[in-house]
Every structure is written in structure tokens, then in C-alpha cells.
Amino acid sequence: MNYSELLHDWIDGTLASQHEEAVFIALAHDAELRTELQDLIRIRAAVQNDTAAFTPSPADTSAIFGRLGFSVPADIPSLATASATTSAVVGTTVGTSASASAGAAKVLSGLAVMGSAAKVALAGVWRSYGAVLASACVASLATVLMMNWSTGGTSTNGTSNSTIANNGAAQSANVSSANHSPTLENSFGAPINPNNPNNPNNPSNLTHPTNPSLGGMYADTVRERVIVREIVKETVRYVHEPSVAKNEIENTSGNDASPRNESTLVQTVNVPKESAAEMVARHAVEQASKRSSAPSIAQNAFTPALTNTPNREETFADVLHRFRFGVRGFTTLSLPAPSMEPSAMPFFNNAALSLHYALSPNHLVGVEVGQEAFFQRYQSTENQDTYTVTQYPTQWWAGLTYRYNFTPEGLFSPYASATLGVAGYGFLGRTQVGCTYSPDGVTQFLLGVEASALVYGHQGMNYVSPKVGVTYGVSLRL
Amino acid sequence: MPKSQDSKTISNIIMPPNNQTDIALYAQLRASHPEAERAFAELYRRHAPRINAYCKRVLGSREESSDVFQETFARFYESAQTAGERTMTNVPAYLLVIARNLCLQHKRNTRVTFRFEDYDSPDHHAARRIEENELLSLITTALELLDFEHREAFVLREYDGLSHQEIAEFLNANEATIRTRVHRAKQKIRQILSPYLHDLNK
Fold first, then answer.
1. Residue A29 CA neighbour count, 13 Å, CB half
2. pTM for the full model?
3. Has residue A368 got a pLDDT over 70?
4. What is the Cβ-side half-sphere exposure of residue B57, based on CA atoms within 13 angstroms?
């Protein structure tokens, strides 16, 4: 074993661990080896203190900078001091010169990694947010559809039964406020007494006239809505309204062999201060009587079980007509004014696509997807260095939107909308006010002003990037 | 916080030159004059000592090393202007490559006065004027007595701090060969300095 070579490896820090003990034992017993060790250490120390070698002469520095047309910085002649300091660390590998540059290398390499991974991260963000967003959209639309169906059927002209729903909602609000039960209410706010099994008003005692399987399930508000819908569709009005004492309760015979309870039958026409249920049922009966081939139903009477009466169900086209697809652009200004130009994508800059669903002519909900630039300025600290990052990237964003049309029936309709969503680098909120122009009820032009804000965070600090601007677009009802 | 990857964003990060990487500074050498000047000054500040040490200790001659040192940085700057789409990955290594090529060119153009194998008289330098840093001057002189390969390997290892593997990659040689060269260079330097070192050990 060549202990001299092992000694060199040990000084270089590359000695294998299994040889260390042998080298130390050899050093303990070999004076010549110890002398060699001392010499090598002295040589290395002398080399590392060789400032003359590490210090470029001022003449060389001046010649280099002069040749390139540069002026010599004031601190460069003091390289003698710097080299003496750095010479002690010369024994490191190339590429790790000053600690500051190493720290800066870490910072920008980290930034570069983050930047280069931004696209991947963005895709990952959209994969995560996209699932949540899609779920929220589906859930929202499903809830909207269920709520819409629960408030009534569709009128013959294909539009939603918004009047019925509106009146029903208004009435239910009045009813629920006047006759509020803390436990159970039917879908129109009338209280239900679930505690008395002998009470004919007890939901569990109620039997659906045409669908006995639904009997005993009235305690569920949602189920009640379903039952009401079923009732309305079959032009049979079975609404549990024990509080509506002023209504005459009339039980007429019908074809249904299910047992009847007088309290389950409610006259819903020509009754002052009729409840929402009554109004819904009356309207549905009136509509059904117009379409039905069955004997017409008198206003003050009804046939409980006209199971053969056809009722027009909402078609897919009806549902489709409630959707409105739009595209809009916007010209916005970041606040405060940015200090650079925004990055631009090859297409679809400062534009958005939208898909709205009309809950009613006044209320629309939907989703928007767009791409625009947001100016960002934030502080970042890396390795005790703090610096300001400014960027003006164009980002994709998406959000849920709600719009209220003030006068939807008119040619011009002022509107207000709000959107909450996510963008590539944070959360986004925006509001709009403007006016739509719809010459034919299908095409709708839009012009408005909007304010938006991107909220993003970095290293525990939150920042806001606000914008104001003008928006313009067109939409088509599907 | 993910960063935008577009070039406008990176170029507008407000950071002083001394906090930027060598690669970023190298890219700025193609920029406008003030920016290129700042970038070059920072790169010079970082790497001139090591390149200067390499040139001085490998070439030995002060005049030759000065010429090579100046030419190294001039060519480095000129290469940045003509880099085009090529990507710089290791600025210190690139500087060393330029310096080495110039040193080899000078070596070919100069007559070899000493060879490592020919030197066997350690007392040759006993009469040198004793300077403040005796050991260092003796090491410097001893280096001049080594042949180019051993001298270069020693300088790259001890002055530039490269590992044996890095030296092997830089010189396109085998790591074991480099290890042997460095070892032999140290042994020879120690042999040359033995009388002085012997006195120090007393």
C-alpha cells in the first residue's frame, strides 16, 4: 500500500474511509510520512495564499477593459484584497466562486426552475382547479335545474316558468316568514307538524294520490318539491297547507283508489291571499286544461287524478334555449400603471368566452374563461437578499359568474355581473356594469365597464393586482 | 409563486449584477453597452483571479502569462458576441479552456528550457534571493521546473480547486492519469523544496 498516495488523498479529502485507519497508523509509526504530511500542508497553504497569482495586475485589467471599450470599474483594482479572501476557498470546484454568486445562482436557478416549471405547474394548477371548477359548475347547474324544476313546469312558449317561479318564490318568502316552522316546512314554507302521528297533517300520514310509494316521505323538503312537481304535472294539486285555513277544502272523487285525506286537498283558485303552492297549482291546472283532452277543469273544482292527461314536459330544446354563449374582449389598465409591456400570447389576448344559463330573464349564472395580462410586483427574499420582482404575464383564468339583467324584456337592458375564479397565479374577482342590446332576443351585444383584481401570494405575503377597463362583446342564445 | 417564463419577465427582474448567475451575465454580454459592460465587469471580478493564477503558474513567464490572460478575456467577450443560439453552461470552464488553448499555443512557440525528468539538482535554487514569502517563491520557481502536463495538473488542482475528475474531463484524460500527475508534481515540488522544508521542520 502506497501510504504517500493515500496521504495525498487524505489531504484532498478523497481518501476512502476504509483506508483512514491504516493511514493514521502509518503516520503514527513513520516519521518520514509525518514529515511529508507537514510539507504537503505547507505547500497547499502557500499556494492558497499566493495572492500575486490570483491578482491580475492593474495594467492587465486596464488593457482588457480598454480593448473592449469598457471603463474599468472602481472596485476592480482592489481585486488583491478580494483574491486574498477568496484564495482560501480556491480549493473548491469551479463554478462556486463567491458565496454571493452562489447564492444568486441558487436564487435564479430556483427562479429558472420555477419559471421553466411554470408551464408544468400551470397545467398542474389547471388539473387541480379544473376538477374543482368542473365539479362546482356541474353542481351549480344541477342545483339550478332542480330548483327550476321544483318551482314549476314549462309554459307552452318554451320559456321557463319564470313568472311562476318568481311569484312562487315571493309567495314562499312571505309564507315562510309568516308561518314559519322551525322543524319542517314544505316547499312553499308552510309548516308541517311531524310530531303528531295522528295528525292528518303529519307528513308520514300523507299518501300520494297517484304514487303511493311516495307516501310517508313528506318530511323531506326536497321530496316535497318532487311530489309537488309530480302533482302539478299530473294536474292534481296535493299540497299540504294546514295553515291555509281560509281555503276551502274540497274532496272530489276521482279515479284514484288511494285513500284520500281531506286535508290533503286544497282549493287553490279564487282564494284571497293564496299561497305559492296554490298559485303554482292553479297556473299549472290552467295550462294543463288548455292542452289536455280530458274534461276541462272548473276553476273552483279539480279532478284529483287525471293520470291520462298529457302534460308537456320540458324538452331538451327548452333547456338549450336557456343557455347563452358569448365572447367578449376588454381593454383594461392595471393600477398602478405598469412599468413594462405585457407579454402577449399568439391568440386570444384580453378576451373571454362565457356560457350563461338563465335561471330567469333577470338572473343568469355561468362560467367564463379568458386570457389577459396582470401586472405583478412583489418582494422576494432569497438567501438574505431581497429584491423586487415585476412581471406582466398573460394568464388564463376561469370563474363562475352571475349576471343580473335589470330590464331583460327591453331592447336595451342594463346589467351588473360578478365573477369569482382563479387565474394562473392566484384568485380573480371582477365586477361589471353595462348595458346589453338585443334586437331579436337571440343576439345580444354588450358594452360595459369592469373592475378586476388578481390576488396572489408569495412567501407569506399577499398582493393585489387591480385593473379597470372597458368590456365589449356579443352573445347568442343557443 | 410560479414565475412567468416569458423573456420580458426575466429581463425585468430588478437584481444587481452580483446576484446574477454566470450564465445570465454571459447572456447580457450581447446586450446594450452599459448592460454588457456591467456584466463583463462582474464576470471579470469573479473569474479573473483564477484565470490569472492559471496563466501565471502554468506559463511561468510574467510577460507571456499577461498576454495570455488579456487574450483570454478578449476572446471570451468576442465569443459572447458570436454565440448566437448556443447556450453557455459553464463560464469558468469555458474561460479555462480559452486560457489553456492559448497557453498551449504559447508553449509550442517557446523553447523548453527545463524538463521535469532532467531536473535532479535541488541545490540549484539555494542561492535565490530570499523574499518575504520564501516558500511561495520557491514553489513558484519549482513549478517552472515542472513540465507542462504536471504543472498544469498541479495548478488546476491546487490553484483552481478542480477535482481530479474535473481535471480529467477538462483535459480529456483519464482520472487515474491526472491523479498520478498531481501526485508526482507535488512530490517533485517537495523534492525541490526539501532543503527549505527541512529547515522549517527543525
1. 6
2. 0.39
3. yes
4. 34
Q: Do residue B2 and residue A114 have CB atoms under 8 angstroms apart?
A: yes
pLDDT in tens, B74-85: 999 998 888 766
| Per-residue pLDDT reduced to its tens digit, A287-339 | 555 555 444 444 444 343 334 444 456 677 778 888 999 999 988 888 877 77
pLDDT digits (tens, 9 = 90+) for A246-266: 344 344 444 444 444 444 444
Least Cα separation, residue A107 to chain B (angstroms):
8
Task: Determine phi and psi for A434, rounding to 5 degrees.
Answer: -175, -155
Question: Which grid cell sits at A383?
Answer: 438567501
What is the average per-residue pLDDT within B133-143? Answer: 80
CB contact under 8 A, B12 and A387: no
Whether residue B168 contacts residue B182, with contact meaning beta carbons closer than 8 Å, is answered with no
39-68 in A: which are within 8 Å (CB) of B?
39-40, 42-44, 46-50, 52-57, 59-61, 63-65, 67-68
- Looking at every residue in chain A, the average pLDDT score rounds to 68
Nearest-angstrom CA–CA distance, A169 and A151: 8
Does A378 contact B at CB distance below 8 Å?
A: yes
pLDDT for residue A213 is more than 80: no
> How many residues in chain A?
478
Tell me the chain A residues in contact with residue B46 when contact means C-beta distances shorter than 8 Å: 97-98, 101
N- to C-terminal Cα separation, chain B = 63
For Cα atoms A269, A272, A275, give the angle at the middle one, nearest 5 degrees: 70
Contact A94 B133 (CB under 8 A): no
Cell of B190: 517537495
Spatial separation of the C-alpha atoms in residues B177 and B114, rounded to whole Å: 22
Q: Is A111 on the interface with B (CB under 8 A)?
A: yes
The CA distance from B49 to A122, in Å, is 43
Q: How many CA atoms lie within 13 A of A59 on its CB side?
A: 5
Is residue A131 predicted with pLDDT exceeding 80? no
What residue in A sits closest to B81 (Cα-Cα)? A68
pLDDT at B70: 94
Residues of A in contact with B13 (CB under 8 A): 111, 387, 389-391
**Residue % of chain A over a pLDDT of 70:** 50
Nearest CB to B8; choose among A98, A114, A343: A343
Mean pLDDT of A112-121: 54
To the nearest whole Å, the CA of B172 is away from the closest chain A CA by 16
Rounded to whole angstroms, the Cα distance separating A107 from A115 reads 12
- Among A352, A354, A456, A336, residue whose Cα is nearest residue A396: A352
Interacting residues of A457 by C-beta distance below 8 A, sequence separation 6+: A426, A463, B1
Residues forming beta bridges with residue A448, ordered by sequence position: A434, A471
